[in-house]
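Intended use. Records like the one below are meant for learning the mapping from a protein sequence to its folded structure. Do not use them to infer anything beyond what is encoded.
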Amino acid sequence: MVTEMHNKFKSKEKGAALLTVLVALLLISLMTLELQYTSLIERKLAYNDLNHLQAYYLAKSGAHIGLLRLTLLGKAMRDNNLKAYSKYFPDLWRLPFPPFPPDQADLAKVSLKEKSEQESLLDETRISAGKMTHSISSESSKINLNLLDNPTAPASCPNFFDTPKDMVTYLGHRLVTQIDLLFRESEDPTGEFGNVRPDMIICNIMDWIHPGQSSFGASNKDSWYETQNPPYKAKRARMFTVDELKLVKDITPALFLKLKPIVTVFSENGKTDIDQLTQRRELKTLFRDFTDRDLEFIYNHFQSQLAGSWGNVQTFTNFMSANFSRFMTNYPASLHNEFFTVGSRAFIIKSRGELKKSGSTIQSTITLAVALTTGAGANSALNLDPAQCNADPDLFFHLVLQKCFAKPTTKQECDELFPGAISFKETTTEYVCTPNGNVSPPVKRNKPTAGQEVAPRGLKIYSWVES
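Structure written out for the chain above:
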């Protein structure tokens, strides 16, 4: 009997041991499965990050190609030997850029030699997957809100923009004209845009960007903003994006949506590219009494007689004065070159990188706002020694920064190069930037001859947005 009990005990002991082993094996299996699952997830996330990184650098490559095209445009505009080909300059930025690398189906359509050359080029780019493309659009026919900053308040905001006499009143006049057209076209202007005068809206924009306490549209520029929920104050500085316009008093959502396509905060000098304005049939923003028939007449002449470019400002104004005498009443001949230009100098670059993986498409986009500049800010030095720099009449060697810069042609450029108390004035023959103290003697730059413009010297990036 003792032997029988002993055998039963040993049998139970073996069973318990076997159960322990099975449980251990089950736990190990579960741990292994969990480890494999975790590794799979981490691998998936790593590949996902890698795919997004590849798409980003494809988009970044497209953005840099866009910048290169605009740099070439600026160089062509500076080269006197290329002036005869100026009508082709828009092709440097306007022509669409096809997706790169091209699809294999497209390569199959070319000759064997061309296919071999394309494949060799693709090997050099080291792009193993995905593609990039970009587009460039002009901002130069739009109204720059940031240039509505007036140093002194007008005696009366109503009627302040009736007759353009400087850049502020010119841009204000265009914007008032555009808003007035919107009011006329609306079936319910009060319900859609509010009970407000167009010129008062412009004065509210001036209040928003102008530093200090002086007000153009009201006795206290902050009183309306402080009643909002939550309350805030006028910015008193330049707008960074057009979307800031939604914060300005009397800018209703409906009015903002109408104005957004025609305004900008990214151009340099505010001049209107009349080629773009004519091409888009938007000349009515210059003169509200142009009829549709007038606009069609101008557009047909522009396309059929001038091949889609005015060539220069004088050709445009001569045509307008010959056919629309009332246009010259609003825009005196002495101010034509101050307000108008031929050829774009402000642009938006939109670049996209695209990667197709496992049936899904991964995209990365980069949007840049850039402008060709006539001068150069403190971050736009030219790589020239003092002798080379001073040999060019449009350049000067900065004694404090010990770098070469283009001589400023605007107060903003003057402020960037010489922070602090300075003065800037523009005469009929030159631009004069006078630093405070003994930092530097006055920097003077001759104005171009009548009908000409200052050639661009740099490329300024206003905004770089990634998504």
